Amino acid sequence: EIVLTQSPATLSLSPGERATLSCRASQSISSYLAWYQQKPGQAPRLLIYDASNRATGIPARFSGSGSGTDFTLTISSLEPEDFAVYYCQQRSNGLTFGGGTKVEIK
Amino acid sequence: QVQLVQSGAEVKKTGASVKVSCKASGYSFTTDYLHWVRQAPGQGLEWVGIVNPSGGTTSYAQKFQVRVTMTRDTSTSTVYMELSSLRSEDTAVYYCARGLSGYVYYFDYWGQGTLVTVSS
After folding, report:
1. Sign (positive or negative) of CA dihedral B34, B64, A87, B89
2. Which of A43, A50, A87 sits opposite B95 (nearest CB)?
3. I need a surface site. Which of B26, B33, B44, B73 has the fewest CB within 10 A?
4. Model confidence over A28-69: pLDDT tens digits?
5. B57: Cβ–Cβ under 8 A, 6 or more apart, which residues?
């Protein structure tokens, strides 16, 4: 099973700051990675697929990069509604999720 | 608009079975695959399996192979997930989610979730 490790577990930032979230795969997954945002009591929301493609309706401040084993989700300038938990997910071999990164207000 | 509407919360005894439904609307039901993903309280996401609404074929995560059955009813645009031999560790919110067209294994629309509570 491919293990996805997300870091940091918690990111404390202020609105307007840049957020950089990391996802590392236990083996190469090419670009078969997605990012989701989840707010309390809600279902996850697809942000990015195939490492760098923004899903429909996702603001341009969200961007994804990486390939192989190392991936990054960047939020260029945090809006109040961006404080949430973020998960990465791979579809290269089976389907697994990372443990999540919580982006909280500093 | 695309909607996935799930059945209500369930409380089950250890060893029992539960069947959760997910009714799709706003798109052609047989066009896109549907998945089930679960989330234990305060925990991360875990993929359970996938069903092809067109032919009814399924694929399950190895962990659930023996205990899960996914079916669909094209006449009502509904998919079902049945999980048997429930244990306390199965307590979770179960989501149905649509596979992104052309990619299948990413999830672009999600149901509201169904809380399944298992207790002795």
Report:
1. positive
2. A43
3. B26
4. 999 999 999 999 999 999 999 999 999 999 999 999 999 999
5. B51
Q: How far is A74 from chain B (nearest CA, A)?
A: 19
CA distance, residue A1 to nearest chain B CA (Å): 10
Q: Which of B16, B29, B37 is nearest to B97 (CA)?
A: B37
The Cα A97–Cα A2 span in angstroms is 9
Mutate to test the interface with A, among B35, B107, B108, B109 (most CBs of A within 10 A): B107
At position B120, the amino acid (one-letter code) is S
Give B-chain residues touching A44 at CB under 8 angstroms. 45, 95, 107, 110
Q: What is the mean pLDDT of residues A1-18?
A: 97
B51 strand-pairing partners: B34, B58
Digit-coded pLDDT (tens) for B90-99: 999 999 999 9
Distance from CA of B94 to the nearest CA of A (A): 10
The pLDDT score that the predictor gives to residue B71 is 97
* Low-confidence residues in chain B, pLDDT < 70: none
Please indicate whether, in this complex, the C-beta atoms of A100 and B44 are within 8 angstroms of each other.
Answer: yes
Identify residue A87 by its one-letter amino acid code. Answer: Y
Q: State chain B's maximal CA–CA distance in angstroms.
A: 43
CB contact under 8 A, A97 and B45: yes
